[in-house]
Amino acid sequence: MTWRADILTLFPEMFPGPLGLSLAGRGLREGLWSLFAHDIREHAKDRHRSVDDTPFGGGAGMVLRPDVVDAAIGVALAEAPARPVIYLTPRGRLLDQALVRELAAGSGAVLLCGRYEGVDQRVIEARGMLEISIGDYVLSGGELAALTLLDACVRLLPGVMGAAESAAEESHGAEGLLEYPHYTRPAEWAGRAVPEVLLSGHHAAIAAWRRAESEKVTKERRPDLWARHETSRGGAGAIAGHPAAA
Ligand code: 6GU
User: Fold this and answer.
1) Residuewise pLDDT in 10s, the chain (246 residues)
2) Which ligand 1 atom sits closest to the C-alpha of 136?
């Protein structure tokens, strides 16, 4: 079976969007993964097709109804049940490469994109949703977050990227370090030379220089990643322990 994503959204026209281009798009056309965008509004119960309502307790904005969202999830899961249901929200746990690897290693995901103020808490709990955020800033909806998460997962699927890129992901990403800087021709440009060692043809020296550059930039820019790199390798599974992983 191919890795399958079902998106639940009020804006299905946003998909596949950028994922229809480049390597992800080619993989999609070749059947290496599949994507189905569902309009949440198709699961509205009333003749006004309402999907949201005002929040109990008052306040601004609208909340997606649990019955409508639950029906949409039911239809999506029926196609391939053994998948996590992910709710994209700035309240979620931060997406990182370890979680991306776990999701890519599974059979796919159902991705719920919120709009308005959010989704009724009861359906989040009833469906055992995994709540995920892509960073500490606020987007106007979960759609761009879903596209981001999918891009990160799909590039890890077998056959989507060339062998060279796959190998790079293994050696770099798995180490938890930032990448070393890259250079190409011309060897001198605007009075700036390429680091001498890269022109030496000395493969061990080049590897050592790149490693040192990776460590330097990680220490400087991301002390949090550096600390994690130093203390642990891998660690507990990112999804393990979550009800949706069962
Ligand atoms: Cl997943 N959704 C929204 N609306 N904003 C976000 C986000 C998600 N992650 C970061 N900001």
Assistant:
1) 899 999 999 999 999 999 999 999 999 999 999 999 999 999 999 999 999 999 999 999 999 999 999 999 999 999 999 999 999 999 999 999 999 999 999 999 999 999 778 999 999 999 999 999 999 999 999 999 999 999 999 999 999 998 666 656 555 577 899 999 999 999 999 999 999 999 999 999 999 999 999 999 999 999 999 999 999 765 444 565 454 443
2) 10
CATH 1.10.1270.20 correct for 172-232: yes
CATH 3.40.1280.10 positions along the chain are 3-154
Helix, strand, coil share of the chain (percent; to 5): 45, 20, 40
pTM exceeds 0.85: yes
What lines the ligand 1 site, CB under 6 Å? 88-90, 133-135, 137-139, 141-142, 145
Which CATH fold topology does 3-154 show? Alpha/beta knot (3.40.1280)
